[in-house]
Design brief:
This protein is mostly beta strands. The protein is built from one helix and eleven strands; from the N terminus they run αβββββββββββ. The chain has one domain (9-19, 29-226): monomeric porin ompg (Porin), CATH 2.40.160.40.
Length: 227
């Protein structure tokens, strides 16, 4: 039911250089799939409240046997700052290029998006909500999509380690289908490796009404850097 970077070079190479699809990879995608996701995010402070963000991602699908997705993204993150509740608000415009190969007829896609997020801290807990509108430029027809993600985080201190656990649920409304087309549930943890680098490990469960795979299980790793 639908409801709501340590060595950076391997990640950069995977994101920047295309991987040729074998004949088997161009077959019709299965209804169910298990995938592995890897992402790299690099951030740089331009000012007290503005960050430059660059990221790349790659996914292996068809039971982790073929590269089915590549992504390169760039954007800005503006923290409103000031007093009152506005200091918890972040506005992020982004551009992304995607190359997906889930089945016959797939091709490159470009997206522009605008996300508005709010995050409220409560002691060890943080509750956040992100609303995103994205315009998808693709063949045979462009489309617009709305995404809403609700996330809960908590800092955890163990005897030998400290990390942040998180769980989120995101729903997607696709105007081309006039329907809530996708639900993505995610659970994982973020471990700081030093004062500039952190590592994410997570599990994803995704259901989709209009594209294949309809049901998706994925295990992911993300490397986050700041300089």
């Amino acid at each position: 039911m639908l409801r709501r970077t340590v060595n950076l070079l391997p990640f950069c190479a995977l994101a920047l250089f295309p991987v040729s699809a074998s004949p088997q990879a161009r077959q019709v995608a299965p209804l169910h799939d298990t995938q592995a996701w890897a992402d790299l995010t690099v951030s740089h402070a331009l000012s007290e409240n503005t960050d430059l963000l660059l990221s790349g991602g790659i996914r292996w699908g068809r039971d982790v046997s073929h590269v089915v997705y590549r992504r390169l993204s760039g954007g800005l993150s503006f923290r409103c700052g000031g007093a009152g509740w506005l200091r918890y608000v972040t506005i992020s415009p982004f551009y992304s290029h995607y190359a997906a190969q889930p089945g016959v007829g797939s091709g490159p896609e470009n997206r522009t998006s605008l996300a508005v997020g709010v995050a409220f801290p409560f002691g060890r807990w943080t509750v956040s909500e992100r609303n995103t509108v994205e315009r998808r430029f693709r063949d045979p027809k462009d489309s617009t999509r709305y995404r809403n993600r609700l996330q809960l985080e908590r800092s955890i201190d163990l005897a030998s380690a400290s990390f942040r656990a998180f769980v989120s649920d995101e729903v997607f409304y696709d105007w081309s289908a006039s329907a809530w087309a996708r639900n993505r549930f995610l659970i994982g943890a973020r471990k700081p490796l030093n004062n500039r680098i952190s590592l994410d490990l997570y599990y994803v469960r995704q259901n989709d009404r209009h594209i294949v795979p309809r049901d998706l299980h994925a295990f992911g790793i993300g490397l986050n850097t700041r300089f």
